[in-house]
Amino acid sequence: MLMPSIFGESLLDDFFRFPFESYDRGYRNGYMSTDIKDTDQGYELTMNMPGVKKEDVKAELKDGYLTIQASTNQNRDEKDNEGNYIRRERYSGTFSRSFYVGEEVKQEEIKAKFEDGTLKLLVPKKEEKPAVEDKKYISIEG
User: Fold this and answer.
1) How far is CA 32 from the centre of its chain?
2) Closest CA to 42 of 124, 108, 102, 101
3) Which has the closest alpha carbon to 96: 15, 141, 34?
4) 127: exposed, middle or buried (C-beta count within 10 Å: 0-12, 13-18, 19+)?
5) What are phi and psi of 8, to 5 degrees?
6) What pLDDT does 30 receive?
7) pLDDT tens, 23-40?
8) 26 membership: H or E segment, kind and range
9) Residues of the chain predicted below pLDDT 50
10) Distances, alpha carbon 11 to alpha carbons 7, 8, 29, 53, 139, in Å
11) Which of 20, 78, 88, 142 has the fewest CB neighbours in a 10 Å radius?
12) Angle, alpha carbons 37-38-41 (nearest 5°)
């Protein structure tokens, strides 16, 4: 029987997850969880970024990969009536997600809007051109 933990679901889960916790902390807290919707115009990405300001969000298109990066710096100080700290919690971090959108998509074709901690991106659909097979023949003497 697992004992309840004050830190999570169970004491053993907390113990075994500890060294890896920092890698997925952002996704568990709701940072950058993404919904992707296929529409007639393209792909609509809706990404949650609670507590992140617009100026802390960067989007880049390079080699067919759309990369969104966000940084946050939160400070939750609580003081009693005399100004003594009861608890101080600070969090600072950078999150990044990448999506392959294809090398045919151009940066100016992607539309982005940030509002109330939510980033919405519209990535147009591009039809992939079939690769033309370049036939090369070996000359035969004789």
Assistant:
1) 4
2) 124
3) 34
4) exposed
5) -170, -150
6) 63
7) 444 444 567 889 999 998
8) helix 21-28
9) 1-8, 11, 14-28
10) 8, 7, 20, 35, 73
11) 142
12) 115
Name the β-bridge partners of 95.
70
| Residue in this structure with the two tokens 């939750």, named with its chain if needed | 76
Task: Please state whether 22 falls in left (phi above 0), alpha (psi between -120 and 50) or beta.
Answer: alpha
For the question of whether the overall pTM of this predicted structure is more than 0.70, the answer is no
The pLDDT assigned to 2 comes to 47
| The pLDDT of residue 67 | 94
Instruction: Scan for tokens 């969000």, then name that residue.
Output: 57
* Residues in CB range of 44: below 8 A, 6 or more apart: 36, 37, 120, 121, 122, 123
Give the span between the Cα atoms of 137 and 142, in whole angstroms.
16
* HSE, side-chain direction, 13 A CA sphere, residue 111: 7
Task: Write out the H or E segment, with its range, that includes residue 119.
Answer: strand 118-124
